[in-house]
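User: Sequence recovery, please. Input:
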């Protein structure tokens, strides 16, 4: 009788190890898939940027510095390899594109150009997809990290290699600042 209880405990332990290991593998693969989905959207953005820059280049002859910053940020983003490095360079590219869009607002002929507006709309749509993909990625990273760190799963994580902590896709420090808003009511002075 004791033999069967002992055998049942061993079998239960082995099944728990297998189930825990497989759930960690599943979460890790979901995190990697989410990152690849972000990568697909980033590739689309990288492909759209040269078209936008060439479409606005002639009209924005006095804004070459802005265009060069966008191209430089794109080049850095394309050549980034690690998740942390790619996140940083993509955030810089996002900021550069924001500045480009802001500068484009002061050029009426660009706002009336159908090709430029179409490219800007596609880039904006892609930015939204990237944002949603980043959110999904971060949610999956949080689930994966939690599953890795809770007891007794942390024992399985320590026993088997390949369960490194994934990094979150974080906003750059400049975007974390709360914008100042002056909502004071000023009294009108009478003349």
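Assistant: Recovered sequence (191 residues):
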């Amino acid at each position: 009788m004791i033999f069967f209880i002992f055998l049942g405990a061993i079998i239960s332990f082995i099944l728990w190890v297998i189930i825990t290991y497989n759930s960690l593998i599943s979460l890790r693969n979901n995190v990697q898939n989410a990152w690849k989905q972000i990568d697909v959207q980033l590739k689309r953005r990288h492909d759209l940027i040269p078209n936008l820059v060439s479409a606005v280049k002639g009209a924005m002859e006095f804004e070459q510095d802005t265009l060069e910053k966008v191209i430089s940020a794109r080049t850095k983003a394309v050549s980034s390899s690690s998740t942390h490095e790619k996140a940083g360079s993509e955030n810089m590219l996002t900021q550069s594109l924001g500045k480009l869009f802001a500068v484009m607002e002061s050029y009426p002929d660009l706002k009336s150009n159908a090709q430029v507006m179409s490219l800007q709309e596609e880039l904006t749509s892609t930015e939204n997809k990237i944002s949603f993909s980043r959110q999904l990625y971060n949610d999956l990273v949080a689930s994966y990290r939690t599953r890795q760190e809770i007891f007794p799963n942390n024992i399985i994580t320590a026993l088997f290699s390949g369960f490194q902590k994934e990094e979150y896709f974080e906003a750059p420090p400049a975007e974390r600042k709360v914008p100042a808003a002056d909502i004071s009511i000023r009294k009108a002075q009478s003349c």
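The radius of gyration is 25 Å.
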